[in-house]
Amino acid sequence: MWALARRKVRAQRAAMVKSPAAQLMIDLEAKQVIFANPRVCELLQLANNGKHWQFFDSAHLEQLLELLKPHQSSASIEGVHWLVNFPQQTRVLLLYASLTAHNGREVWFINAYENAQGYSYLNRIEQEQKLFANVLNSIPEFIYFKDANERLLGCNQAWAGFHGLKPGELAGKKLSDFLTRNELERSQTYDNQVLAGEPCQHTEWFSAPDSRQILLQNNVYPLKNQQDEVTGVLNVSYDVTKWHELNRKLEHENQNRISSEKELGRQNNLIRTVFNSTPDPLGFIDDKGNFVGGNEPFAKMFGFTSDELLGKHLTEVLSEEQLEQHQLQNRQILEDGKPIRYEELVYLDDGHQIWYEVIKGPYFDDVSGERGIIFITRDVTERKATEQQLADAIMQLQELSFIDSLTQVANRRSFDEKLLQLWLTHRREGVELSLLLLDIDCFKQYNDNYGHQQGDEALRQVAKLISRSVKRGSDLVARYGGEEFAILLPNTGCEGAKQIAETVLRNMKEAEIPHEFSDVSDFVSVSIGVASVIPQQGVDYGELVRVADLQLYRAKHQGKARYCSAGDSAIEDTKTAP
């Protein structure tokens, strides 16, 4: 009986090892993983210490046991989601489990399936890049964005033109190439705050290339990658020099009123002209809460004309909630003598929404002794929409930066990052990593005779056939360059890699893409180099690429339309693809 039980356990574990599903067994009393197949080790980063399996992060086991605990009474789980956080990614697993007796102990037998949501990518990255550039260049404010090392990643036409250049001439440069030392130090102070994840706003004087001094209101936001990590800084600046000069002039005129009635009348006419000509709302409220002046845009904010608003009290035009907020602000301004700045969303009677940037500051008439609040308000609705449009464009650009626009498979950048990541994890776990390098045979003759448009279509078809040849979500198909493609196979040995190579050759043969100018066959074919290795300490991942490239060269040299791997002779497609 004991021998029969042992054989049953061995048979069960052998079946679990071969299962494509992620499976593991947990001893409920010992709170230990007593068996795990390769698929679950790959998904959850488990390793065998000789006695049992351990999670890379012990908190994951505790989290799983807590998830199982409510289901002990029913002894089964069907379709429960488990969110597992790793340093570089988050996995969502769908669990099916049953609680059974094993060697006299209660054991959870668990099946896990990865349930990750895919991303939707646009078909033509070139058009999106043009759209992004057009959006940036249509914005009149100064916009630039840079990485954490002060290197400029891009800017719009307004910012480049301010420095007498074009946007493309600024990429890769640093702010130190354009700002004075003092300006750079001030900018870095605020950038450090933003790199810590907190957006900020500040106003600074800057020296223009023509020696003018301009006042810029800078709104600085953190740029984040898909892992929500801050990787750089986005700066949107507004030239507020004229507003500053106007405000300074108004303040100077209020503080140094002349005794001459003629001069007083001239000043009043000047202020009235400014009020009536500016599209931005401007107005005054005395310290008792009465409206004592304002232009038509200011009165429209409250649903009145300027004549109707004059003399009204705050209690007549504001709701209770609005009234309490404004009274608190006004008391603070009059007591501290300092202006405040904030943004406010206003709903008009016709249903429209307008964003206003409001500056409220104190004023004092030294002739009459009147005190009150001055409103300087600016319609920033378009700026708000522009900022959102810019954020959406940046997000789209980040999503597209890892996809080849022609074939819609991963690009070379995505391949390099994935290879480095897999090399490190496979070296730590001591498991094999395989790489296939594929090259379309006689592709120059195809382009020369069928045309480049037909050549692009052939590249797209080949990419689809290669993608169809791999089944696992962890495998990566990438365009390596030109007519070359690559397949990364995690946790896969040489035999498994050869099977994928045979599948690719078979799919290519069955597709029968015409190529009457090929010196191999009448149809488009590929040559494949296969390399498999267990990464070792001190060996660079470039060694895997070098071996695969050497085998690709062998396949080309020995007649094309076949694959070669280290230690094997060339294997023709007619022999591997029935």
From TrEMBL:
Residues 188-252, 340-392 form the PAC domain. SMART domains: GGDEF, PAS. Residues 128-198, 267-337 form the PAS domain. SUPFAM superfamilies: Nucleotide cyclase, PYP-like sensor domain (PAS domain). InterPro entries: Biofilm_reg_signaling, GGDEF_dom, Nucleotide_cyclase, PAS, PAS-assoc_C, PAS-like_dom_sf, PAS_4, Rev_trsase/Diguanyl_cyclase. Residues 431-568 form the GGDEF domain. Signal peptide: none annotated. Its cofactor is Mg(2+). GO terms for molecular function: catalytic activity. NCBIfam families: GGDEF (TIGR00254), sensory_box (TIGR00229). This is Putative diguanylate cyclase.
